[in-house]
């Protein structure tokens, strides 16, 4: 009988952490999740042979992480402070705790990565002379958040010398059915509300890379299944959805709203029909005024350069390992995202609260 592998997921209530946890379960893994309110989470999820095992603990507590990781083959480090609060103070101690837990258990660490650790001058040029990021592109961040991401990854790279294996899977801007710290759910639309307008952070004509959470999670689970083929410290890029001129995501949102047949989603017949939902540019100057008082806005402003130039990651290494990258068609992905966020009729009915 083949032993079922065990994964510990840190951040299982978040967007990418939750998606990875569900796909690991579907792939036959035993999945544990560390959470400060484990009893509440377990009651909400129900019980069963394939249910996630919720363990009470805190990723900021080294002893909790190490105890939860005993016997684990994989530690998914998908935990982040909500809303970027105390991001600089908490992120590095949490990865140190995960490294210690992986050292004890022999587990490989899986880290969802981003483009933030690359600065605006890090890009190579592909055959078409467009900026492209490879896994070997220099990491020269100009932002505090990017510098922290670099420090985090370097700790994992150094840990490989002590026998701690890790896999970093970098992706573009996340979007998906679960709300989270991302541009889609915290900028373009408002979770729990009908879509009456779209706020777009970039300029027309500037390409942007998006990453649908279920696709990224699927790629991650396929990669960890190839553990014996991966180097002790491995980095991989995903391609996701490339919006060549800033209009693809806007069009997908408009079509999803139009297909929903929800008059309220466009504010009734006196407002623009769904296929002509108004698009407003993000008021960057106003954000500058609010930034000193709101950590989330401050962090978003730091990443403005990603909307001012086309930045695209090359996924050749990923394809060489798993074959074609998982890729949900954009319209299907956006519709599922809007339903999950409560922006389309069925989802609003399911998520409405009394009182």
From TrEMBL:
UniProt superkingdom: Bacteria
Annotated ranges, domain NAD-dependent epimerase/dehydratase: 7-226
Name of this protein: NAD-dependent epimerase/dehydratase family protein
